[in-house]
Known about the structure:
By secondary structure, the protein is mainly alpha-helical. It has one domain. It has 13 helices and 2 strands; from the N terminus they run αααααααβααααααβ. It has helices at residues 6-52, 55-77, 89-113, 116-123, 126-136, 144-165, 172-192, 198-217, 219-224, 235-257, 262-269, 272-285, 291-311, and strands at 196-197, 325-326. Helix 2 packs across helix 10.
Amino acid sequence: MAPLSDGAALRAESREQVTRMSARERAGIVYALLCAVNGGFVPAVANVTTRAGDPMVVTVVTTWFAGAAALSVLALRGRLARLFRPSQVPALVILGALGTSLAFTLFFAGAARASAIETLLCLQIEPVYALVLSWAVLKVRPTVERIAATGMILSGLLVALGLEGLAVGTGSWYLLATPLCWQVSHLVVLRWLGGTPADVLAAARYVWGGALLTIVMGWDAVELLEPGRWPAFPWGWVALQGLVLSYGGTMLWYAALTRIDLARATVLVVPTVPILSLLTSLVLVGEVPSSRQVLGVMLTVVGVYVFARRGVVQAQTHAPAADGTMQECVGRGRPLTQG
Length: 339
């Protein structure tokens, strides 16, 4: 066979490169969609686990499962020492405290006091915090579209929850505060942890966050998990919550961001999660949304979509790089979840 000319060889190499890039992008879209599906189960499963077990114990054990998975992955990748690097330990501990210890405590306490639908609705306030913090801390002026989208999100929450849903003592306030913890944890990454591999950041959230929760619980954690109570504890659901919905969701999000731009990943994931959550809430806990809740969800979905579509493009260069290191990324961390 005659050798290819220089021009033909270049064209063949170019076609091969395009094919590789397309395959990488397709994989990124798949990871983003899997992340959305994963996030769709979070409110309903949290409702199941906190009804069957003490919310604080559910919080701690969920983090233990997620932390065990994170440590295993780091050990297999030979990066375990990065989690304990002296120069970064303080920032990693703060990341774990905000992104998991405080966020999970608020989330599961709220989920125990609210319905699965109310849980999914309250979490949609996260873009509002992103807008305010970006403006106040990063000096990024919001666009008119994002301000309008924020108003739509808040209107949707008010329509769906009503004044009675925002009464003192309800779970709504715990849940509304949860995304603020995630957003502040993103600022920690921006300020002190630039260039840190994504799997190390994920591990810090759950390992250091779990350690802090265990310390706070102290002997109460041992007493609440005494053998006599084990049979009644929802171990299977909590394991799913920690291994798949928490740690798995975080890694799916990072996997998507290393293959497609932040704007496309956000538009695929963020508006999809509430719709899927309505379906899982119906299937797992039998919750049927009222007409007011459906209207509220639709308003928040449209608001979140416009917010993501009109504002994230500016931050595309702040996603995790192709080598898995985390660059500056504000606006969404884990889809619990997405923290």
